[in-house]
Design goal:
Helices cover 16% and strands 26% of the residues. It is elongated. A hairpin with a 2-residue loop joins strand 4 and strand 5. The chain has two domains: 115 residues, Irregular (btk motif of tyrosine-protein kinase itk), CATH 4.10.1130.20; 62 residues, btk motif of tyrosine-protein kinase itk, CATH 4.10.1130. Strands 4-5-6 form a three-stranded antiparallel β-sheet. The chain has a three-stranded antiparallel β-sheet with strand order 13-14-15. The protein is α+β, with helices and mostly antiparallel strands and 201 residues long. The chain has four helices and 16 strands.
């Protein structure tokens, strides 16, 4: 019978393991509580503090023991002090802590927020000094265009990629038109017609 892999729920571990390979030294984990204050992130058990979420996830555990897959209720503390491993921290008022059923669930939410933040960052199209947009189509003869004049036949370009191998230069869409000279490469006739595409910063 194939042994099922289990997910370790020990804080700071969260690795998959097989019970047959589990031992008293198999797991490196934190026995304290994760703590967040402003942009600081750390653990109450080992006084490790970082400012980046990815770095927080990489903080090595300070305890060694067996893997466990028991469900845990985890309290995340916001600490107003620099010292993270003291009785005042552990007795933080109710309004200063957030109860999360599963740390893996919390990490998933943080990752989702990070991805959404990245998507929300608006890409800005490149423009020249006259306010014209740069075209991202390979080999576009115009290089810049006015948006109001863009249409399905406005851009003569190459549909493939520019290939440079040793001294040879050609387009992947027109492999038979090879040249060794840069000026001649720039003059290779285009093979496609379409609309200009915006180039972004």
């Amino acid at each position: 019978m194939v042994e099922v892999e289990l997910k370790c729920t020990n804080l700071g571990c969260l690795k998959n393991y097989k019970e047959s390979e589990n031992s008293d030294s198999a797991c490196l984990f934190h026995d304290g509580k994760p703590m967040f204050h402003d942009i600081k992130k750390g653990w109450t058990c080992c006084n490790q503090v970082v400012y980046d979420w990815d770095e927080f996830q990489k903080l090595k555990g300070c305890q060694v023991g067996r893997h466990s897959n028991e469900k845990k209720d985890v309290q995340f503390f916001k600490n107003p002090n620099n010292a993270v491993n003291n009785d005042d921290t552990l007795k933080a008022p109710e309004k200063e802590k957030v109860v999360v059923k599963d740390i893996a669930e919390y990490e998933k939410e943080q990752l989702q927020k990070k991805l959404e933040a990245q998507k929300s960052e608006e890409k800005k199209p490149l423009k020249d000094k006259d306010g014209k947009f740069y075209c991202s189509n390979g080999g576009c003869k115009d290089r810049v265009f006015v948006e109001e004049q863009n249409n399905e036949t406005a851009c003569n370009h190459h549909s493939g990629q520019a290939i440079f191998h040793d001294l040879k230069k050609y387009w992947s869409c027109c492999p038979k038109k090879e040249t060794w000279d840069w000026d001649e490469f720039m003059k290779i006739p285009t093979c496609s017609v379409g609309s200009h595409k915006l180039k972004y910063k």
